[in-house]
Amino acid sequence: MKTLTLAILMSLALVSCSRSQIEGNTWSSLVYSHDSGPLPPQYHFDYNISINADGSAILDYRFGYEKGGKTLKYAFKLSEEDIQKLNGLLKESKIFDGTIKSLPENRHPIGGPLSKVQVIYVNPDPNLDQPPKLYESPYFPEKEYAEGLENLYTYIEKLIPPAALDEIKAKKEEKEKTQQD
C-alpha cells in the first residue's frame, strides 16, 4: 500500500513539474515571411520580418525574383507593449498547439500573396537540455486557424516603422522609373 501511495505521489509530482515547464517556456524569435505571389518581375516583391523576444527586429525587403539581388534592410526596436500584444496574438493564433493543418492541395487558391510565420520556442530552464522547437504556419491554413493567423500577420506588418515604408516606396518608384527608361 505504501509503495502504491508513493508511486501515485511521485507521478503527481512529475505531472505538475511537466506542466510548470510547459508554462515557463517562451518564444525567442520569429520570422514572418510575405511573398507578393506570381507577378511579373518588375512588380514582384517579398520580405521577411525577423523579431527577437527582446524587441529587436529587422525588415529584409527584396524587389523582383533575384535571390542574390539587392535587398533593403531596416533594423528597428519594438516597445514592451508591442511585444505583449504580439505574445497575445501568438497565443490566439494557436501556433503553439502543434501542427497547424494546411488546406488540401486541391483547395489552395490560385495566385495571390503568400504569408507564413516561423516561431522558435525555447525552454528558459538551462537545466533541461532540450533543443528549441520550431513552430511554422502553412501558407494555406485550415479555416479554424486562418483568422488568428491573419490577425497575427496584420499586426506584424503594422509594426514596420513608417520611415522604412517610406524608404521602400521611394526605392520602388526609383526602380520602376529606371525600368521605364
Outline the structure in words:
The chain is of the alpha+beta class. It has a single domain (25-180), classed as Mago nashi protein. Helix content is 39%, strand content 25%. The longest helix is centred in the first third of the chain and has 22 residues, at 2-23. Residues 4-9 and 12-25 have low confidence and may be disordered.
Number of domains: 1
By DSSP (H or I, 4+ residues per run), the number of helices equals 4
Structural class comes to: alpha+beta
CATH fold annotation: Mago nashi protein
Q: How much strand?
A: 25-35%
Side-by-side strand order of the widest sheet: 4-3-2-1-5-6
CATH C-level name: Alpha Beta
Concise structural overview:
By secondary structure, the protein is an alpha+beta fold. It has helices spanning 2-23, 80-93, 143-158, 162-180; strands at residues 26-35, 45-52, 56-63, 71-77, 114-122, 133-136.
Notable features of this structure?
alpha+beta, 181 residues, six-stranded antiparallel β-sheet, globular, Mago nashi protein, 39% helix, single chain, 4 helices
Please specify the SSE layout and strand pairing.
Blueprint: H1 2-23, E1 26-35, E2 45-52, E3 56-63, E4 71-77, H2 80-93, E5 114-122, E6 133-136, H3 143-158, H4 162-180
Antiparallel strand pairs: 1-2, 1-5, 2-3, 3-4, 5-6
Helix pairs in contact: 2-3
